[in-house]
Structure prediction request, 448 residues.
Amino acid sequence: LQQPSSLLERALLETGVDVSVSAATRSAVLDALGLESKPLAVASVRGLPFRRGAILLAALVVSAVAVAIPMAQRVRVDAPPLNSTEVVGARLKPSVRPESRSAARGDAVDAEGAETSETSLARTDITRVADESAPARASGSRGAGRNALAAEIAALDAARNRLNAGEPQTALTLLDNYTREFSKPRLALEAEVLRIDALSRSGQTDAARRRAAAFVRNHPKGVLTARVRRYLEQ
Amino acid sequence: MRADAEGQLVIIQFPVDRTQHRFPQELGRVKTQETVMSSRQRDARLRSIVDEHLDMVARVLRNAGVSESQLDDEIQRTLITVARRLDDIRPGAEKSFLIQIALRVAAHARRTMARRKEVDSDEIPESLDLDRSPEQLTDQKHMRQLLDWVLARMDEDLRIVFTLYEFEEMSMLDIAQMQSIPQGTVASRLRRARVQFRTLVTDLEHGHASQVGS
Prediction:
């Protein structure tokens, strides 16, 4: 408003502008995107909330260190030494992804899963699949859900690359791995579209059409639905 | 049309029949070498978007009706969507793209809230009592509640134009392009939005804040 008619109006307009994000939120966003969190230069930050957040964060770090040092000393004294099996086991333990508050839930089309069992791989394919899904697994197993999204993207990229290389069966296996690994995937819809494509290319057109029909039925207004719908119309 | 094995070519293609592995081109998008970003480039671009626009995303979401308690979730949802569609964003058009995604995310959040019947009532909460002192004008939390109350009661089309113009300082031309509506429509909506905003604020002042304002 060019001429606010009252103090209240002016105050409300100022309030609408005065929204900023805390350092903790920024850090959480970067983590969700699989990006390393770097401290912002103070000069580039405007707004009190961030400074408050930064102070709070610093206080938390100091408290955490104060608690962690005595605990570490106690563990060093009390804890029995780990043997190598336990260490390896811990490293290979499947990732426990935190509940993704913003994850799309149950978006995967629960159409026929039978076609996945129809996919058989040559020995070399299996090796390659293991190699390609390794980075995704590794990044997915980092604590606190860090790089979870990056891991999902990597997993789907691997499947897409195999598909583009003319290996739809390998792509299907990678997509099966993806489904197993990510119980609440954020990119479930992309994965489903890839699966439909891979099924078509592998000659399983009936299965592809069934899944495509289910996709359109379940997500009539989705971003990817137009593509799938056009496929059905072919 | 086939993918280039070098790039992360994305072709969502489907065979017309089993023998002819050709697919309708419009089903997918082809990334050329020039448009394919390396993982490092993607990360750098994404980080740059977060660094430059995170506050704006929060502001758009908040003013579009996302509650404080949901804000962090919806910020993440917006940025994740942006990350997924990074290749679709024209360099220089990041802000516009982010705002559009944020508005959609906010609309979705509002619908979810409505389904859960978490929408607040028509009454101003009792805690919003401006009669006590003008100092409440400097109480950010309090003012935020009042602003939420006002914005929630504006027509959505008007509110979008109003918030983009007043809070994001976008020009009418930019808003028109972003919303795919004529510039005259933007001007008309902005005029009506101002009337609506002012009426609601007056309601607040008369009904609950008669001592405040001049």
About this structure: Confidence is low (pLDDT under 50) at residues 40-51, 74-146 of chain A. Chain A touches chain B through 55 residues (CB under 8 Å). DSSP finds eleven helices and no strands in chain A. Residues 37 and 101 of chain A are 20 Å apart (CA to CA).
